[in-house]
C-alpha cells in the first residue's frame, strides 16, 4: 500500500509530496511470517490513462534488524518523495492536477500499488 502524507493530497507548485510504503501479509495462517533482511524498491508513476510519468526512483532502506511481517500484519517499509514534476531537471515540468497511480516494485518480486489524486493549488493557497 502506498499512502500520501496529506489527505487530501493538495500541493502548491514547487512542493514535494511524501509517500509511505507498507507491505501486508495476505496469509492468515498463524505460523506464516515473511522476513525481509533488506528493502530496495523502485517507484513508478502513471497518469490516469495509464501513460507513465517519466520519473523513476530507486529507494534503498537500511534495516537495523530483519523486518518481520506476520500473518495479517501491515508494516511500513519505507518512504519516498516526489517533486511533482514530470521529469528530471532541467526539462521537467509541474504535473497536471489529476489521478495518479504509483507502483512500488520491491526487489524481491513483490509489487505494491497506490492511487492518489494530486490537486495542484494556485500560488499562495494551502
Write the layout of secondary structure elements.
Layout: E1 2-4, E2 10-12, E3 17-24, E4 33-36, E5 39-47, E6 52-61, E7 67-70, E8 74-82, E9 98-106, E10 111-121
Could you explain the architecture of this structure?
- There is one protein chain.
- With 126 residues, this protein is mostly beta strands.
- It has a single domain (2-26, 33-121), classed as Immunoglobulins (Immunoglobulin-like, Sandwich), CATH 2.60.40.
- The protein contains no helices and ten strands.
- The strands form three sheets. A five-stranded mixed beta sheet has the order 2-10-9-5-6, with no helix packed on it.
- β9 (98-106) and β10 (111-121) form a beta hairpin.
- It is elongated and about 45 Å long.
- The model has no long low-confidence stretch (mean pLDDT 76).
Number of domains: 1
CATH homologous superfamily title: Immunoglobulins
Q: Estimate the mean pLDDT confidence.
A: 76
Reported for the largest beta sheet, the result is: 5 strands, mixed
Strand content: over 45%
Strand tally is 10
Structural category: mainly beta
What is the top-level CATH class? Mainly Beta
Between the first and last Cα atoms, what is the distance in angstroms? 26 Å
| Morphology call | elongated
Radius of gyration: 16 Å
| Strand arrangement across the biggest beta sheet | 2-10-9-5-6
Low-confidence segments, given as residue ranges, are none
Instruction: State the helicity in percent bands.
Output: under 10%
Amino acid at each position: 500500500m502506498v499512502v500520501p502524507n496529506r489527505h487530501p493530497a493538495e500541493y502548491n507548485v514547487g512542493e514535494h509530496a511524501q509517500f509511505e510504503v507498507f507491505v501486508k501479509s495476505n496469509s492468515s495462517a498463524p505460523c506464516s511470517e515473511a522476513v525481509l533482511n533488506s528493502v530496495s524498491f523502485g517507484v513508478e508513476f502513471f497518469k490516469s490513462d495509464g501513460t507513465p510519468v517519466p520519473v523513476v526512483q530507486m529507494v534503498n532502506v537500511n534495516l537495523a534488524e530483519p523486518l518481520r511481517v506476520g500473518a495479517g500484519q501491515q508494516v511500513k517499509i519505507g518512504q519516498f518523495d516526489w517533486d511533482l514534476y514530470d521529469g528530471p531537471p532541467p526539462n521537467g515540468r509541474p504535473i497536471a492536477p489529476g489521478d495518479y497511480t504509483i507502483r512500488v516494485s520491491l526487489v524481491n518480486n513483490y509489487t505494491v500499488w497506490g492511487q492518489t489524486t494530486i490537486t495542484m493549488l494556485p500560488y499562495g493557497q494551502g
